[in-house]
Design goal:
338 residues, Beta Polymerase, domain 2, alpha+beta, Arc Repressor Mutant, subunit A, 14 helices, 8-stranded mixed β-sheet, Trna Endonuclease, Chain: A, domain 1, 3 domains
Length: 338
Amino acid sequence: MFIPAERKFLLNKDVYRNNDFVYEAIASLEETTGILIAIESVRETYDVVLQINNESLYCIAKKNATYSSIMSALKDINHSKNNVIIAEYLTKKTAEKLKINNINYFDVSGNTFIKTKFLFVYVEGRKAKVNKKTNQARAFQEAGLKLLLLLLSNPETLQFSYRKLAEKTGIALGSVSNIFKELEESHYLLKTKNKRVLKNQVEIIERWVTAYNELLKPRSFRRRMRAIGNEFSTKNIINNSDINLYFGGEPGGELLTGYLKPKDYIIYTDEETSKVAKELKLVPDEFGNIELYNKFWTDGLDLRNHNTAPPLVVYADLLGIGNNRNVETAKIILKNGL
């Protein structure tokens, strides 16, 4: 039996728990189409099945949706059905990639691409209501991302004093206090008499990856370059370079897992760009396969591998690139622990 969306909200709200955005997105879609949408009871594999004009839409809900996480979710489902992604928020770039690949989606803001045999809805340019709220959160702004990177990479630091955490991350003492308060209010942090505990770490990591790729990584970017000659490789650089370099992305994945042979290079450094270029024999090239970024973590963070960026950063880089082999490598890194 199908029930109109607004009635179903009242009857089945406990099904989604932390996925309230599903209801908001459906309401936006209903407003966009002007058609009453019915919701079928949840089925195995799918989070919800919608009925619009006698067509069934088989939906997967992704709160912190990136292109790679969406592709991973679609990997093992029945593609003969009208599959649709329901997202809390989609970046313009992610939405465009989904549309190009004929992957149906809609989000809380009302941005929509649904193309089936009997239905076509396409809406873009709606303001990102949820993302705007998310971006106001200190924990997922620049200072919060740096602090969470330390806490997730070196879990013992969760018990450190605010002053020591400020020293280790290079962020203001007041920011540390505010971020911890926000984490507690958001139910990501539990404080007992003797210790602090991070909760819902899977969701924290998902949000960190999204915010890092949208906010902190672009701010850290220096320039794109290419190598002169054919001797540029991770191994050669490690063996023959004396400057401080940390590999992210594909070479970082190669070093952490041994699973990936890099084609494109992400390098983090606090050295001058001219010095890096001279040492590694690089020249600027806007189409080059080598990207230089500022090292944004401090030496207070203990690295698992002294030639790579923190595993969480490498993981986020690989998911941001999004091809299948990079996603598989990212999964190995996550499995081995961040």
